[in-house]
Design a protein that fits this description.
This protein has 2 helices and 34 strands. The two termini are about 15 Å apart. The strands form 7 sheets. The protein has a 6-stranded antiparallel β-sheet with strand order 23-34-25-30-31-32, with no helix packed on it. By secondary structure, the protein is mostly beta strands.
Length: about 475
């Protein structure tokens, strides 16, 4: 074990006693993490980079952390990939970007704060990175220009490279700016990449854009600084994108301590799957984050694919099932309207639940997790038939005053006639992820304070419902520490 890996091992060991620190979601050994960056499948391994502050659990002195996995479940910490260069284009931080392979050479493209978009290359299987003297390859725009260098991604068409920089225009709202290059060194600006005319709420901007084909369409995944991760699906032609659908993966407005899904990136793996990674921020006070010594967690990797009607299918990677243990199953449980039933033998703070419910005559149905015996703490997952929404409600999740954002995620969602509600729920200490019928996923941070806040309940309102089945597993930790 190298000195660096031994240090990471000791840090993880020290942090493991924290009751809020997730056990089967990826996070660094310590300190601050935010946006996932540069996700790339290289020589049979999944590499993930991320915004990282080696100096503490707060946003600042941004580097690129680096981790690698063979199975999308167990991760190995690698040395920091990018550090700010004193006097260089990225002297104030190595901010978000992507990864490509340029004629066999792995290449990172990122925003070098403050001077513009930069690149770095590796010739030793992604362990060390070299920055060319031409950085920034896309210098920051002059005052008054319609575009700016920010959070780039890149792709190749034939012999030509294209890159997006995220942003907005006052007359069209969120957009990205398109650049073209023959060699990833010399770039020319072309035009705004898209203008959305869809009937939706206006967004603050298009940050951390990620553009790729999906089925017979293209998808632009991005984050709004006001509302988090979202996407367009549409048509790509003549170096312009024409959005036809808009969707969200985050359904709550947020600030610095939101506990929501804030930023994301994808890669295409050796099986042709589109794998999604997302950063979930802390929903507790900055003082609590600094005191704990860590902040930020990645969601479970997800597989994105299209349904036949070009809507988006969202599923947890099947590899996560290898962590399952101590299986429990309940079937055919009737729940009368206005009641909540505790599931005997099913409890814990690190769980996967696979729940199938028949709404019957109920107006609302769902599951409660991390429940205290007296109900003083509970996190509610509900399907509201009248509102046609799926809800992840953290209002009562914690009595800890450090929990500063207990709001609810509310996603548009409706069951078809005769369709059962199918929920896959992942609980990992301070994070909850809910996948509903492969169509919607909600994510939220919670911070129950009671050691006995581990119960699981099912409930119905306004009529009787049937819990067709509940399968529950205790989930193993992915860290040997």
């Amino acid at each position: 074990m190298t000195n660096e890996s031994n240090h990471a091992h000791l840090k993880r060991q020290q942090m493991a006693v924290d009751p809020y620190r997730p056990l089967y979601h990826f996070l660094p050994p310590a300190n601050w993490m935010n946006d996932p960056n540069g996700a790339i499948y290289w020589k049979g391994k999944y590499h993930l980079f991320y915004q990282y502050n080696p100096n503490g659990a707060f946003h600042g002195t941004i580097h690129w952390g680096h981790t690698v996995s063979e199975d999308l479940v167990h991760w190995t910490d690698l040395p920091i990939a990018l550090s700010p260069t004193p006097g260089g284009a990225d002297r104030e931080g190595c901010y978000s970007g992507g990864a490509v392979v340029n004629d066999g050479v792995p290449t990172l493209i990122y925003f070098g704060n403050p001077d513009g978009n930069c690149i770095a290359t590796s010739t030793d299987d992604l362990l060390t990175w070299q920055k060319p003297p031409e950085n920034p390859v896309i210098p920051q725009s002059a005052p008054g220009a319609e575009w700016r260098a920010f959070d780039p991604c890149a792709w190749r068409e034939g012999d030509t490279w294209y890159s997006l920089a995220g942003g907005r225009l006052d007359d069209i709202g969120d957009t990205a700016f398109l650049f073209r290059s023959p060699d990833m060194i010399n770039w020319e600006y072309l035009h705004p990449f898209y203008a959305s005319e869809l009937d939706k709420e206006p967004e603050s901007d298009c940050a951390v854009p990620d553009f790729f084909p999906l089925g017979g369409k293209h998808m632009l995944l991005f984050a709004s600084h006001e509302r988090g991760v979202q996407y367009y699906i549409g048509r790509y032609a003549d170096q312009k994108f024409y959005p036809e659908r808009h969707g969200r993966m985050n359904f709550g407005e947020f600030g610095g301590n939101s506990g929501h899904l804030c930023a994301s990136i994808t890669l295409k793996d050796g099986e042709g799957r589109r794998i999604f990674f997302g950063w979930v921020s802390e929903g507790r006070s900055e003082a609590a984050q600094r005191a704990s010594g860590w902040a930020g967690v990645m969601c479970i990797p997800r597989v994105l694919s299209p349904f036949d009607d070009d809507t988006l299918r969202i599923e947890p990677v099947p590899e996560i099932e290898k962590l399952r243990g101590n299986h429990r199953r309940t079937t055919g449980l009737r729940v009368s309207g206005g009641s909540s039933v505790r599931l005997e033998g099913i409890s814990g703070d690190c769980l996967e639940l696979d729940v199938e419910l028949d709404p019957g005559g109920a107006e609302a149905i769902g599951v409660k997790v991390r429940c205290a015996p007296d109900g003083g703490e509970q996190t509610i997952i509900a399907y509201d038939r009248k509102e046609k929404r799926l809800i992840l409600d953290a209002e009562q999740s914690s009595v800890n005053p450090d929990a500063v954002n207990r709001g609810a995620q509310r996603a548009p969602f409706a069951l078809d006639a005769g369709e059962l509600l199918q929920l896959r729920i992942f609980v990992d200490r301070s994070i909850v992820e809910v996948f509903a019928n492969q169509r919607v996923c909600l994510t939220k941070r919670i911070y129950p304070s009671g050691k006995d806040s581990v119960g699981v309940e099912v409930f119905a309102q306004g009529g009787e419902a049937v819990v067709t089945s509940v399968d529950a597993w205790q989930m193993a930790a992915i860290w040997p520490e």
